[in-house]
Amino acid sequence: MRGLVCFDVDGTLAPGPSSCAWVAAVLGHEAELVAAEAAYDAGLMTNQEASVIDARGWAGHTEAEIGARLASLPLVEGIAETVEWCHEHSLRPILTTLAWTPVGRMLAGRFGFAAYCGPVPAVRDGRYTGDVAEHFDEYGKRDFALAQGIAPERCVAVGDGRSDLPLFAAVGMSIGFNASPPARAVATQVVDSGDLTAIVPLLEAQFSSV
């Protein structure tokens, strides 16, 4: 394996609304969730606290209900082509995200990402309980990427916001994709596009000598 390419979901692959807000819009707690996301982005709330708020809104709903809603999540163009390019060039594409694990599972199955991470919502008998079974944060994202067994200098992180900053600091190249000002300030490269394939020339250049 020549290298690792780590992709964030919310704000990156899903340009807006976030996967959580997309689900919350039909479950009835969108306003509360969006406020929690804004507080997290501003550094006023931890992801653990935001996850507790969002998980409550899932209580009583089935895995099938949530899965059906996630299937229509708005995404940028070019995801399938970019993931395919990674595989063809011996690069391991993974999802490094704070989105719930059902989101990562759906995207990995649909596009061929090799692995995914994220907080885990509690489920009993096919229904969400409203609790968080396993919390996850931005440092967990970084650690998940570094645990893939590929040297950090041969890793690229693609992201847009606060949750990507620890990973950006740990890898050989970071790409701020439609990124917020804090992410732009520290990213190695910045790309603004509605098509993920816009990052392929940067990946090609980064791994040309590997």
From TrEMBL:
Query: Which keywords label this protein?
Result: Amino-acid biosynthesis, Hydrolase, Magnesium, Metal-binding, Serine biosynthesis
* Protein family according to the UniProt entry: Belongs to the HAD-like hydrolase superfamily. SerB family.
Query: Which catalysed reactions does the entry list for this protein?
Result: O-phospho-L-serine + H2O = L-serine + phosphate; O-phospho-D-serine + H2O = D-serine + phosphate
EC number in record:
3.1.3.3
Upper classification of the source organism reads: Bacteria, Bacillati, Actinomycetota, Actinomycetes, Pseudonocardiales
Q: Name one GO cellular component term.
A: cytoplasm
Names of required cofactors: Mg(2+)
What is the protein's name according to its record? phosphoserine phosphatase
